[in-house]
Amino acid sequence: MKIPFISTALLIALSLATGAAVAEKADRNKPMNIEADALRYDDLKQTSVFTGRVVVTKGTIIIRGARVDVRQDPEGYQFGVVTAEPGKLAFYRQKREGQDEYIEGEGEVIEYDSKADNVKFIKRAEMRRYRGAALNDEMVGNLIVYENSTDVFTVDSGVTQGGPAVGGGRIKAMLTPSSAASAAAGSASTVPPAAKLRSSTTLSGEKK
Q1: Does residue 197 sit in helix, strand or coil?
Q2: Residue at 200 is within a domain
Q3: What is the DSSP letter of 193?
């Protein structure tokens, strides 16, 4: 099923209705490992600023951007803000619990909150769900919020926030029925991945 345009007068709330699977639960308790060109750490404020081709891994989570600001609260929860290079998009990817499925998204800014267990894609936001190597669902907007614990996401064009809207005041969404997605996943093992799929473990996969 394709929904090429949806009015942004409404804040769309969609659930990935393919069972009770949610994002990998163990990820929020895994250590955050970061590679970058430079680091500025403030022990008193418990903040770290990584700059230059930053790559973050946390369990199944992979994040890439030009700059990552990380803050840790007294309980040990981490809050990260990922900023892309000018003209590019920051990247986020995470496996879904008990499934051969992945959520990935991009935006000029990405916010990750391990306590609230959600991720936000901000400005030129895109989010996709892959079943195996097959693209299953895709949405584009100005702001996308994905709740890891419930697998619910919201998409907004920015009109309701008074900011610049994308797509002429519309969001875009493509949703695949679960039966069709299962068939696509079954054939994915014998069909080469689509050209638009990118590796999630190298910097060469960043958008330009």
Answers
A1: coil
A2: no
A3: P
Enter the pTM of the model: 0.71
Nearest of 53, 12, 36, 15 to residue 151 by alpha carbon: 15
* C-alpha span between 113 and 115 (Å, rounded): 6
CA 137/CA 172 separation, integer angstroms: 11
Tokens read off for 168? 């002429």
Angle at 122 between CA 13 and CA 79, to 5 degrees: 95
Question: Which domain range does residue 46 map to?
Answer: 2-188
The three-state secondary structure class of 60 is: coil
User: What pLDDT digit, counting tens, does each position of 23-64 carry?
Assistant: 556 677 788 899 999 999 999 888 999 999 999 998 999 999
69-108 confidence digits (pLDDT tens): 999 898 888 899 999 999 999 999 999 877 889 999 999 9
Coil, helix or strand at residue 133: coil
CA atoms within 13 A of residue 70's CA, in its CB half-sphere:
27
What is the C-alpha separation between 47 and 23, in angstroms, rounded? 26
Helix then strand then coil, in percent of the chain rounded to 5, is 10, 50, 40
Residue 17 CA to its chain's centroid (Å):
18
The CATH number of the domain holding residue 96 is 2.60.450.10
